[in-house]
């Protein structure tokens, strides 16, 4: 026990040279193991056939993963759940007037790309969890179909009531488009891929290049995951065989109107038959035509009918028991299911995770024993609505809340720069990892490369200066869109999401062309960054599993919370200023004077200026947080310079408190209107879907002008941060008791 | 003499109610006369056939204008000059490799638009003053072909040496494109109209809408007018019959390489055969293809051969002699020649000017006698290189320098907001005019409408606040691109350029479709703004001609000069900061770290940081200018409140000095490297062409990193501003001598 304590203290303190060699040994070994060639082989095997939820190859992959992990000497199992998963029975998009045109709704095979021809096994192009519907109506182009686009339509005096909308992909997560359209009275929604977003505008199209060809379609779920992800019939509980299920018609996450995705080859004939005002400049794509809004004269028929079946999903779970703190779990996950062959999404991330796991298994064989329990997960059903991770975590919620100290996610990988988002108590930790990982192209650390990129892209001299001088690089906050969601937002487990990218683009997302041919021609073709991701994830897991004191840090967290609160204040101020200014301009006659009578707009109406609201509870909580995080930082630094063994009692007491720090940021009641989302600091926006809203209860209340709710939410968040501060303070005091001489 | 002095004092002082009725009578009458219907008739007549320089209808129009003006009882004459005007004999653009394609180089007739079918009389599509050439080479896409585009090419490691470049229209005046291309070693230049600039991207194309159809071509001159405008063979002197002419090969304003304009229907097959890197995002148009840069594999043949003929141009000049100050001339001009039928450019402006002149002729018939001489001009040969105005003004240079007090230009007109650029000593004056002109759509003053638009489009709260509170709206500075150039830049005559626009777009500029059909379907179709322009121009001429003290003002001028000098300092500071920052990033390894090895860029080299330079002479001159302009303002305000008749001696003395104030801003040696441009405050940029460079000697020296030249130029400009200040001060002292009791 003593000696291990000593090692832990040293792991915590990279300055202490005497023991660094020992740490470095394991880590260096770990990072030397991941092999690009093996990742290539795994990818070829895993993406050889379509492997969506319910498909034969999805199950086959799960079993292959299981047996592979077992071959590596690991304790692996499959956990299965039964989930609602609609697949299309009938699909139609037809132009009825003023011309006839029937959309093909098909992606053709490409000769050089063999797997693109596996038609019998491919899921058709569709948006999963669209409600069934059969509608015909005038068409309206709504740009991205996000709330601000409807504000623009209002200025132009155009309503979508009773119409079918056509939106281009982009600007938000796709599920927002039918959601907002339905709220605005539309009866159907078509989503298409404009070549401006991921087609010829950017480069050669597949198979000559990586970009989306004219018939390429982006499949994807439109389940209302910002309400709750996972099986629509078992909100908040695992979709086990015996789970109580709600009736389909009560499931809130199915769309209210039918929706289908189409290619631009199918979209152009529809868009070309729109009249009405010319779309504003930032609404225009690059199809060779004038983008107009309608409504009509294009009249469109849209039909979607699905088999509303229950399918079984297969999560593959590996457990490496901890030797000293077996009840503290470090969890690592990447999904294995895809929309079709999914070489990039998700296999490129999964194969890195596999090599990471194989590396750990090699370490185990060589005698390494992680102090904490490590859990590696290959999730099923991510694409449809984070099904595998959500149902697993809901099933094991009680145990996870007690034991999980970290969840690290990845989901696809590419060539370029390290991207990390996550809980800000982990910002310092992951910066430390990134400093020790070598970029395969530049032979400098991925941290350094990322820092230099931030210097290069900084918008202001202040940002640039910060990129140069701040000890840690900022990490972004987590919204949604991958399997960390349930861990962070439902359970309050500190989480990270990571991957490399930024150097290659592409337009095969969720199409039949996201396959081995595409990936090995146009992305991380030599899997150099696959190896780097395995090194990054492996090092992070290794360090977190073997640290004695959990390596959370609260100074970056505290600074970030200050930024978020400043942001909220700025946002309110900006809304006040904008409203005052607009009201003034209305009174001055600015809108009528600048309105072109040939293209008239509806002038906005005078609005009440947003009131001042009480931020004092948050300010007080931030003060407490500043004090406690500084205290904890000082306490942690003090013991990091000692070689006196850590007291096991102190370690236990401190970790017992640290493990609560992310949980403290949740509230059992969840966010207003969406109780599944329990984290008070991070959540996907109700109207962004993937995009994060920080301090979401307050921020969304302000955005929606619910002033009373904003103040109530401020009190809830402030209380959480006060508790957080007390817990940190208490952990700091425990650390102060550790002797250093 | 006395009574007239009294009236003048009153004209100067709009607050004095007793005589305002008399002023208002004439002005109201003046503004009541211009007729939209007549403008429509004039336009139909003037644009009935192609009327470019040297064409039968160009001369016919001049003679019709002459007889019309004479019918109105005016003293009119034609002044003719003989100028070099090349017209195409042979033109070819062919794709030789990897496919064959021959550009049509033709604009087809449009059935509903009768004049578009007048092929026999139409000038072919070409760029006038392109040198003859017959070249074949690899093609390179250079975006707009402006200097910063070549910086980007350098970063990409691409040279245009020995290549033919293809540039899209836009980003600068067209003549800059072959000029820079030649400097960079290209051997030919093709310019095309991308639909992003003025085609289907913006709306329906002609004849369904106002925008450029696929075969539409923008003709235009590529004469190097920033070197000197006018006849290339007679720089600085009038191209009279007996003028001494330089040999063609010595003419510096002919392009160095052959150049032709083409439609996008002709451009797309060429662009589609370019390989190499994908064009940066801001280089891409909206043709349905991936924009790549080359060079090649497209190999192109370009041939241009012209008839280098001398043609006679016909300026129509009307003189209304002044009754009190006949040797002070108010000049008003708009050109009458066009590239083809030219309904918008220039006839829409010319017909307004005609109605303005007819209104003045009506006033004359009713007994009004302008105090100053008024000269109305309908210029020929503007399109080719400001030929008519330049040769006329060069011919009459001595007299004009002595007598001209104002030149007001227009050149086309449309629907919307008043646009004015000009000498800032006229800013206050023209604001006063704009306050008294009614906007036909909004029934508020055009000044008010313009102010409200500025509030609406202000980028910062400070700009918005200024738009709300500044007594006068800022006017822009004059670059080049129309007939004011010789008056302002060569002779130092205070000038204004004005027109309405902003509500209708179009893509018929310099094509056969700029005709009566287009204008009467898609622009100021009821000539309401034609009437408004006539009212604006007429009121300005009337007030300037009848004021006793010339209505210059120097407070706005002084403020603007301060802005310009601040701008120069900011620009130098920005260059210093950017160079320091870039050098630092090079040293840090930012460029190598962020470079994608699959798409490598050439890292920039370390550069010397721009030195601090001595702005003190300018600061001292500005101080003097502040004092004198304040003094003059106070002096002018003092006498504006008196009813004591102005002393004729004082008026004479003051005006004698005021007339010099714009001349003082010129220098006989002109700008560095382009002696024709004599104004030290305003000039078209040597590498912008139309776009203005204020304090051009200093600004361009800084831009070109000629630090010594910048300091020399500062001294020249400072001396001019010191002289200006002394002259203003002296005029103010003269005014101080006027008794007010």
Structure, described:
Two copies of one chain form a homodimer. By secondary structure, the first copy, chain A, is of the alpha/beta class. Among the domains of chain A are: 85-306, Glucose Oxidase, domain 1; 435-475, no CATH class; 555-736, Transcription Elongation Factor S-II, Chain A (Up-down Bundle), CATH 1.20.930. The first copy, chain A, is 41% helix and 16% strand. Chain A has helices at residues 2-12, 17-32, 36-46, 56-71, 147-155, 176-183, 195-198, 264-271, 343-365, 382-385, 387-395, 397-403, 427-435, 446-457, 461-469, 484-490, 516-522, 528-546, 555-588, 590-594, 616-640, 648-663, 696-703, 707-736; strands spanning 75-97, 101-102, 127-128, 133-141, 164-168, 188-192, 220-221, 259-262, 299-320, 325-335, 372-379, 404-409, 416-422, 495-502, 682-684, 692-694. In chain A, helix 6 (176-183) links the parallel strand 5 (164-168) and strand 6 (188-192). The longest helix of chain A has 34 residues, at 555-588. The relative contact order of chain A is 0.14. The interface between A and B is large, with 44 and 43 residues.
Oligomer: homodimer
Low-confidence stretches of chain A: 1-23
| CATH class annotation of the domain at 85-306 in chain A | Alpha Beta
The largest chain-to-chain contact, stated as pair and per-chain residue counts, equals: A-B, 44 and 43 residues
- CATH topology annotation of the domain at 85-306 in chain A: Glucose Oxidase, domain 1
Q: In the CATH hierarchy, what is the architecture of the domain at 85-306 in chain A at level 2?
A: 3-Layer(bba) Sandwich
Helicity level of chain A? 40-55%
Number of DSSP helices of chain A?
Answer: 24
- Give the overall shape of chain A: globular
């Amino acid at each position: 026990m003593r000696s291990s304590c000593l090692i832990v203290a040293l792991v915590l303190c990279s300055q202490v040279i005497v023991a660094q060699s020992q740490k470095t040994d394991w880590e260096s070994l770990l990072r030397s193991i991941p092999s690009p060639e093996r990742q290539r082989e795994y990818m070829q095997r895993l993406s050889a056939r379509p492997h969506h939820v319910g498909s034969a190859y999805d199950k086959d992959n799960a079993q292959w993963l299981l047996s592979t992990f077992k071959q590596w000497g690991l304790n692996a199992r499959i956990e299965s759940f039964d989930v609602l998963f609609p697949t299309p029975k009938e699909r139609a998009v037809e132009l009825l007037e003023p011309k006839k045109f029937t959309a093909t709704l098909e992606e053709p095979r490409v000769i050089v790309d063999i797997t693109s021809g596996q038609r019998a096994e491919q899921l058709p192009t569709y948006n999963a969890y669209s409600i069934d519907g059969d509608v015909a109506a005038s068409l309206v182009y709504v740009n991205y179909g996000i709330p601000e686009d409807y504000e623009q339509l209002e200025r132009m005096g155009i309503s979508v009531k009773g119409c079918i909308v056509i939106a281009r992909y982009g600007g938000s997560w796709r599920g927002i488009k039918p959601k907002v359209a339905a709220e605005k009275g539309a009866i159907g929604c078509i989503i298409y891929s404009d070549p401006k977003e991921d087609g010829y505008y950017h480069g050669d199209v597949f198979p000559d290049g990586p970009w989306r060809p004219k018939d390429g379609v982006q499949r994807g779920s439109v389940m209302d995951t910002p309400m709750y992800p996972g099986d629509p019939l078992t909100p908040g509980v695992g979709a086990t065989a015996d789970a109580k299920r709600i009736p389909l018609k009560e499931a809130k996450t199915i769309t209210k109107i039918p929706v289908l995705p189409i290619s631009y080859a199918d979209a152009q004939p529809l868009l070309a038959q729109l009249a009405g005002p010319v779309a504003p400049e930032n609404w225009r794509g690059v199809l060779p035509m004038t983008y107009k809004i309608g409504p009509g004269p294009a009249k469109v028929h849209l039909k979607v009918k699905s088999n509303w079946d229950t399918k079984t999903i297969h999560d593959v779970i590996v457990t490496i028991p901890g030797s000293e703190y077996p009840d503290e779990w470090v969890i690592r996950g990447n999904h294995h299911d895809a929309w079709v062959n999914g070489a990039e999404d998700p296999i490129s991330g999964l194969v890195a995770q596999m090599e990471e796991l194989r590396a750990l298994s090699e370490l185990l064989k060589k005698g390494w024993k992680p102090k904490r329990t490590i859990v590696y997960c290959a999730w099923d059903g991510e694409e449809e609505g984070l099904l595998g991770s959500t149902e697993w975590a809901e099933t094991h919620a009680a145990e996870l809340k007690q034991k999980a100290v970290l969840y690290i996610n990845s989901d696809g990988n590419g060539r370029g720069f390290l991207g990390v988002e996550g809980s800000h108590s982990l910002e310092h930790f992951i910066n430390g990892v990134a400093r020790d990982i070598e970029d395969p192209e530049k032979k400098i650390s991925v941290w350094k490369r990322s820092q230099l990129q931030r210097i290069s892209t900084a918008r202001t001299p202040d940002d640039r200066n910060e990129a140069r001088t701040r000890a840690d690089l900022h990490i972004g906050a987590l919204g949604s869109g991958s399997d960390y969601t349930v861990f962070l937002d439902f359970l309050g487990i500190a989480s990270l999401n990571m991957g490399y990218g930024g150097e290659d683009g592409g337009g095969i997302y969720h199409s039949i062309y996201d396959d081995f041919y595409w990936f090995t021609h146009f992305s991380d073709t030599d899997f150099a960054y696959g190896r780097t991701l395995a090194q990054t994830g492996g090092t992070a897991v290794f360090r977190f599993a073997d640290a004695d004191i959990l390596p959370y840090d609260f100074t970056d967290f505290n600074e970030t919370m200050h930024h978020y609160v400043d942001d909220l204040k700025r946002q309110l101020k900006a809304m006040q200023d904008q409203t005052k200014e607009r009201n003034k301009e209305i009174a001055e006659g600015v809108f009528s004077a600048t309105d072109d009578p040939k293209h008239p707009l509806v002038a906005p109406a005078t609005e009440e200026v947003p009131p001042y609201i009480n931020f004092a509870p948050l300010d007080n909580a931030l003060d407490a947080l500043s004090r406690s995080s500084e205290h904890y930082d000082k306490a942690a630094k003090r013991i990091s310079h000692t070689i006196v063994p850590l007291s096991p009692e102190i370690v236990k007491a401190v970790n017992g408190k640290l493990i609560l720090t992310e949980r403290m940021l949740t509230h059992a009641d969840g966010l207003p209107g969406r109780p599944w989302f329990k984290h008070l600091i991070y959540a996907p926006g109700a109207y962004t879907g993937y995009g994060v809203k920080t301090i979401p209860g307050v921020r969304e209340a302000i955005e929606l002008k619910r002033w009373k709710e904003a103040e109530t939410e401020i009190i809830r968040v402030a209380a959480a941060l006060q508790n957080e501060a007390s817990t940190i303070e208490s952990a700091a005091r425990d650390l102060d008791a550790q002797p250093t001489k």
